[in-house]
# Entry
Amino acid sequence: PQVKEQKSWLAILLVSCLRTYASSTSKPNILLMMADDLGLGDVGCYGNDTLRTPNIDQLAKEGVKLTQHIAAAPLCTPSRAAFLTGRYPIRSGMGSSTKQRILYWTGGSGGLPPNETTFARILQQQGYTTALIGKWHQGMNCESHSDHCHHPLNHGFDYFYGMPFTLVNECQSTENRQLNALVQAKYWLYSQIIALTVLTLLIGKLTGLFLVKWKAIICFALCGFLFFISWFSSYGFVKYWNCILLRNHDISEQPMKLEKATSNILKEAVSFIERNKHGPFLLFVSFLHVHTPLITTEKFLGKSRHGLYGDNVEEMDWMVGRILDAIDKEGLKNNTFTYFTSDHGGHLEAQKQNTQLGGWNGIYKGGKGMGGWEGGIRVPGIFRWPGVLPADTVINEPTSLMDIYPTVAHLAAGIMPQDRVIDGRNLMPLLQGKVQHSEHEFMFHYCGLYLHAVRWHQKDSAALWKAHYTTPIFQPEGAGACYRSGLCSCFGEDVTHHDPPLLFDLSSDPAEIKPVSPATEPLFDIVISRIERAVQEHRQTLTPVPQQLSGYNNVWKPWLQPCCGTFPFCWCDKEGDSHQEIL
# Structure
């Protein structure tokens, strides 16, 4: 009996091991790569013949290229929230009703809510080893500097190495400030006025020109000093508060050494692939490229035909190639679902004097920050999975970054949440050619919490309509971007409301040059009526949620600031000499 019992347990153990092995071998590894601020027109396979992107182009040649791949928002924080959750940002509270449409501080309390289920969480539950390497920008803490409520490790990632925030010019120098630049300039002006007033009162008191009490001067000077400290303690030290490097929960560099960032991120990505080659794994490489200040290694400086921005794009393409080489080296190419995209369109207003520091969006109007125009939301979408997806294939159907969520959940045999609306659609039937049309009939294009445009892809038809309810006012007029303010606004005096909406036929006018009218388009009223009905139906699916980008959540809070020393003396370099260049 004892021998039989042992054999029985051995049989059970063997079956369990076989099931585990079969499960792990049937599920593909998943490699997701996302650029930051890359324009659709910056990539060779999307029409650029002056920038060299051979690795991204080869990825498209070996797989499927989407030409109408749409971000759910034109800025990084809300777009990435939608990518991670498969839901419009307005559903998770990651849209904004103010001019602050992204998270501004690592030491703020806003971020991706803990009750949101990311695709990383679903894959983690299915036995995947999950990692995020690079940019996060979905928040850190809620109530204390170490509760990590918004941290990647609290959202389904087993491993995190990178920036909890995003690159900004202040990470490199105090010149050409980027973080809320207009507010900083206003506060600095107020501080100078207060200082000049105090100085005038002081001179007047000493010379007898003014009959003012010392108490009044001291009180005014103290209030001015407190005002200066209240804003300069945050904006004056952005490099220390926001430009930090984390390994899981631990701060590795504060401030981070930008010259090492490219090599460190690449080294971590390759190392993760090598450690987890037996899979299955999910690796989300969220590049710091090609966001300003365009940190580029010496190897690529001055090598492109488009200045520093072009150098940075070509370096990112090289990084893509090295990561794909690591996949090939481990023999994982045929069992890895690979994807490349950008979080939104290129930043047209990113300039320094006469030098362009932002991307090019091809024929498409607008760019980063513009919720309706194609240039702000149409991004690269490239997939490769040899033997499963066809090679050298182009699909022109409307798709969304939100579609990655149900697609990878399907590949991992995961179960999506049933208690909420998921706006993404599983792309596998479309990518494999089993169906010819996208499941998206309507797509809603938000700018913050404001609905700017709606796209209607008529079922079983080539017709593709897009109605604009609100468009930004370009500065100067006709310039194609908002160069005076640095980024277009979503509401107020800086936008134009259209009634009836501007209507474009994207199938014949993808650049949105000439809107149709009732006089030129017999179906005008029918199309507008159907789109408005879809808007009403969509709004009925929305429920009130806490606003993560509210004024309170998006202000710097010293008690939430991650610090590797004793606050406010926050600086360290735990990476030290362990850095090795990957060439």
Notes: The mean pLDDT is 92. The chain has two domains: 29-168+244-438+546-560, 178-237. Residues 294 and 325 are 24 Å apart (CA to CA).
